[in-house]
């Protein structure tokens, strides 16, 4: 039901009209407000991620406003998670605490930016869901054990990177908004790499290897072993070994896959 509620929130925006000329503090969105009367919609292929060939079995569409609300929900999750981690007595210290504090500020900035951007389109930003960062008890010591906290942080950041990538096609109707989303996407990738390195992992993903140590996070990495791009098996055109080929490409996550992952932490 919690995932259906999120979908309903997104779908409620699908047929809404933008009323009048959009105004915003963000110049990147002013052009869209002046020139587009209705939120553009582009079909987004949903990938069968466990299949090496990445066969495209179905498609769905999300409006630009829906995509931004989708992103906002993920940013709510990350911002609250880091804020709670910083508030937990004795959980984080030293350089790790400084890094998490900086990431926390970034995520809060993303939340405010996305809320402003959605408002500039004449739409209402979705409100933050209520989160359970223990995932129903799976990570019951998440705010008492630094290693568990960082493992969950890695899963969130790696999901965020793939989620933004998965929505790029839906934002192609407006270059300014796509550019703004990519600016957030690249910072999320920096967060992911930093958290992974703090945990002693490589900064990039090898195959579909889940280095969090939590089986519940396996879905975050599903499909990352793919080596076929634009119909070309990349292992056949290079002497680079397969593991390194998979590291050279990041894979998108479908909307449903992201909601399934995030749903574990939504009450």
From TrEMBL:
Query: Could you tell me the superkingdom of the organism this chain comes from?
Result: Bacteria
What InterPro entries does the record tag this protein with? Ferritin-like_SF
- State the protein's name: Rubrerythrin
